[in-house]
Amino acid sequence: MGVAHAVGAEPIAAGLWQALDKDSGEPTGWFLIRDHDGVYEGLIVRMFFKPGENAEVVCDRCNDDRHNKPWLGLDIIRGMKRDGLNYNDGTILDPRYGQIYNAKMTLAPDGQTLVVRGYLGISLLGQDQYWTRLPETAYREIDPRFNPNPTAQKPKIPPKSANSAIR
Q: What's the pLDDT tens digit per position in 65-84?
């Protein structure tokens, strides 16, 4: 994925983002935003559960092609089109209820905060989530199936050299 933007260029939303619980401040999930030929999509790539919560949760309330798909890897943002720092004309899925909302995203000029807004009908009737960009090193922490940056995988343990063999 590389850096989100070049020096002097406008930042883009593509990258790895974290959402925090508004009450506890604890992470709730990590989301990967990808650019597919000018259409931006986002999927869940890491989830944080409270003790006793089911880590194998599926979208059993979804009524579309995501029905009964695991939340991990689920594409929840679809169809976003970029207009500068704004992304419009997309949808966002709330997998807890299977509800799909109209959505838009606004990227802060420094590229470090993404405001994700889901709404019904008009944007005034919606709710904002504030996501923060994660550093490149965070790619090491996501499932390799969803990692667009394979060089950021967890380092492998190097084999022992011949000089370190037990004699």
A: 999 999 999 999 999 999 99
- Length of the chain, please? 167
Domains and CATH numbers, the chain: 15-164 (2.40.128.520)
pLDDT score, position 8 = 61
Residue 161 has pLDDT above 60, yes or no: no
Q: What are phi and psi of 37, to 5 degrees?
A: 55, 45
CA atoms within 13 A on the CB side of 5: 16
- Which residues lie across from 140 on neighbouring strands? none
What are the tokens at 33?
A: 């935003």
Residue 104: both structure tokens together: 């838009």
Q: How far apart are the C-alpha atoms of 157 and 144, rounded to whole Å? A: 17
> Measuring CA to CA, which residue among 4, 13, 18 is closest to residue 134?
18
